[in-house]
Amino acid sequence: MDSALIPEGVKRCALWKFLLGLAVVGGVLVWGIIAMLLCWIKGLNQTNMNDYYGFALWIWADLAVIALGGGAFFSGLLKYVFGKDDLKNIINYAVLIGFICYSSALLILAIDVGQPLRSWFIFWHANVHSMLTEVAFCLSCYFAVLTIEYIPLILENRQIDKVPFFHNLGHNMHSTMAIFAATGAFLSFFHQGSLGGVAGVLFGRPFAYRESILNTIWPYTFFLFTWSAAAYGPSFTLFITWLTEKITRKKLVKNNTIYLLAKISGWMILTYIIAKSADTLYWVYQTAPAKGFNWDFFFQNNALYGKWILFVEIIVCGFVPGLLLVFKSSRENSFLRVAATFLGIIGVSLNRWVMVLQTMAAPVMPFDTWQLYIPSWQEVATTILPVAYGVILIMISYRYLPIFPQERELNPVEGADPDHAHAAAPHIGHEATVA
Amino acid sequence: MKQTQIHNEQPPRRYGMAIDVDKCTGCGSCMVACFSENNVPFKQDETDKLLSITWMRVYQLTNGKTFPHTEVAYLPRPCQHCAGQHEGHSPCVSVCPATATDYSADTGIVSQIYTRCFGCRYCMGACPYHARYFNWWDPVWPDGMEKYLSPNVSPRMRGVVEKCSFCFHRYQMARDKAYTEGGRKVQEAEYQTACAQACPAGAIVFGDLNDPSHAVNQIVKPDAHNHYKSGNPRAFRLLERLGTNTKVYYLSSREWVRRSGDNYRADEQPGMPGAAAQHG
Fold it and tell me: Of residues A430 and B221, which shows the higher confidence score?
């Protein structure tokens, strides 16, 4: 029924199957929307946050999805600025994933603030000294860039492309995309960094606090967050690509592209985790003691926070995936590569968890106590909401847009005329030029 | 409650407190007075203290020893009105993205602008004293109680952060009165916080730390050239090593009480003074 909308030369499941899938994920989406409306109508008393946990699950989710969405800006940087042309075969998907991650982050923020209708105050009454102000500006601008990068992909839909205006618009947007890719990389450097700065500047919280580099305004976490997003973001892109291939039961991206991105991600992870280890050692021996703390005070093996976190974050989810992706033999082993990307996702998410939740949990006043926190169902539902939204957007985009330029070549459809298909869909194969 | 700047010849004020922990009985009068003075909202069920708004909160400290050597002390904790390592670099003021909390160079008071706060709670995460509170609910007053609310303090709505203001509205009134009377100085007795006035033991002394005629200055003996560290050997500030440079000083003759005000590594000897941290 919807075959006129499906790109030519590719095969999609029956419409009823597609709609059934949408309905299932849509159910989860509705659950999240109900929770979101409860938070907006009744207020944040619907959560289990409290005056010790002003930042909690949502802020972690925000930081995590933005780090995972880092594949978009870094792939764009590699392709357009560093000339890694092979990445054109995966960059559409990286952009789509980035778009989902960033729109999710903005949605979560809109739920998280106590007075959402005043959110614009962050721009109007901006405090230029606040890392959160920098986050707001760069995040908003970069989301606009991602939207501009996603639009040409939408315009490549078969029916939309038939309209001359949209066809020409898409073509012209493609030709200017390198500028947006560079802009996106610039903005991402600052908002990923300022998210790290959000925790790092808290000089009243010795667990999160980090000194600034060369007496600038930026603490070490500023650079570590940018670095980790550039390292683990591509791993997330690779993992979601693998997952999509499993679900669609098709090979969608050629191995040379996968191997290239995996190799870059591996080197970034390995170098990042060395820097992270150095940062941790400096904090252990210098920062925490200067504030009157032995480092192990913060890892007391209570219900959640023990030394195991450091081991998991740095060794299991840092050095291990880094090394697995750096070495050719393990990188080209499908199981090990996917395992490495999965570990990487856990690692960066754990890092964001620690920097938000553990910071809030640890007492600072000597007569205060550790506070642990379990999110309410409304918080969980609103955190899953963007996941459901993301799945739906991927489902629709995959079905109706030429996301994967190599799909037709890798999955020839019996009886299709390749010459005709090529002529009818001239943009298939164009990379969505993107950051 | 943002302060109107008044340009005159007077040196900047630096309002602060000296709280004698050895005098505090833990009666909670300061907390009640604060609630009443500042229209602090409360709920029917206040059992979960992590959700209770207490601009002034009294902590119970113990020396950790067993009977008969157990000792107890009570430590009232208002907002510490931090100045940071350079004036105005409070943990909270520096992070607020919407300039909804501000540092007054005229008084040293950290303000909270309720109508500008959009409830991101970053300031709460930044404050190591947990002196900032979020309005998780809209305030609901028992029937008839609205008539008893202070007309000088605006009640806060759901979704914004609030905290102790050193009863700033009292300062505004005293300042306006002094201005109409020829622009004279605000006298010590004209501006006192509700908690200081309510304390039956006289444990809280409030005034201008920069004015040698004020009792608080004489007690604290602040060194303006060294981040206002106290010259009184009985005095300490909470978490001084973090570099918050607070304006609330505590007094005690007991070593363990003074040591309870900060964190010390296992290898540090009791009584070793913590150096103020440099945080840039």
Answer: B221
Does A22 reside within a domain? no
Q: Give a yes or no: residue B2 inside a domain.
A: no
A56 domain residue, yes or no: yes
Phi, psi of A33, rounded to the nearest 5 degrees: -65, -40
Query: Which residues fall within 8 angstroms of residue B27, CB to CB, at 6 or more apart?
Result: B200, B201
pLDDT tens digits, A388-407: 999 999 999 999 999 999 99
**Is residue B136 within 8 Å of residue B158, measured between CB atoms?**
yes
Q: Is A113 on the interface with B (CB under 8 A)?
A: yes
pTM of the predicted structure, to 2 decimals: 0.91
In a domain, A32, yes or no: no
Whether B121 sits inside 8 A of A55 (CB atoms) is yes
Q: Which residues from A are below 8 Å from B264, CB to CB?
A: 292
Domain membership flag for residue B205: no
Which residue of A115, A294, A364 is the best one to mutate when testing the B interface, meaning the one whose CB has the most B CBs within 10 A? Answer: A115
**CB contact (8 A) between residue B128 and residue A205:** yes
How many whole angstroms separate alpha carbon A85 and alpha carbon A79? Answer: 5
Q: Residue B173: which domain range? A: 15-192+210-253
Query: Per the CB < 8 Å rule, is A50 touching B48?
Result: yes
Which residue range(s) make up the domain with A337? 49-200+209-373
If we measure between CA atoms, which residue out of A361, A52, A39 comes closest to residue B134? A52
Report yes or no on B150 lying in a domain. yes
> Residue holding tokens 């992706």?
A325
Planar angle of CA A307, A310, A315, nearest 5 degrees: 130
Q: What is the ipTM of this complex?
A: 0.90
Q: Alpha helix locations (H) across A113-130?
A: 121-124
Give the number of other Cβ atoms within 10 Å of residue B179's Cβ: 13
Can you read off the two tokens belonging to residue B136? Answer: 């998780």
Q: Which two three-digit tokens encode residue B145?
A: 């109680």
Residue A349 lies in a domain: yes
